[in-house]
Write a structure and sequence with these properties.
Shape: extended
Structural class: mainly alpha
Radius of gyration: 18 Å
Order of helices and strands: HHH
Helix content: 55-70%
Largest sheet: none
Length: about 90
């Protein structure tokens, strides 16, 4: 009898270039915590918090692209990826 094959639920077609560093992970955790606090403690609605986070994210993309000198086509691709909805 053959051994059953396990199927991964994670798409591994594109290998990750590197793992998140500790500082990057802390930033992500802080952003999620602040968003949760804005919804629960400050009484902000979830769409308003999402608008705030997307505005901060798009500002970060613009600043990083301008400060690092990323070419225009790469900048447009980053904004397109950030602003499109996932299916």
């Amino acid at each position: 009898m053959s051994k059953p094959h396990s199927v991964s639920c994670v798409d591994n077609k594109i290998p990750s270039l590197r793992r998140l560093s500790g500082a990057e992970a802390v930033v992500i955790i802080v952003i999620i915590t602040v968003a949760a606090l804005l919804v629960s403690v400050a009484g902000m609605t979830l769409p308003l918090v999402l608008q705030l986070l997307s505005g901060a994210g798009s500002t970060a993309v613009v600043l990083v692209c301008l400060l690092t000198g990323i070419p225009g086509w790469s900048f447009r691709n980053a904004l397109r990826a950030f602003l499109t909805t996932s299916a």
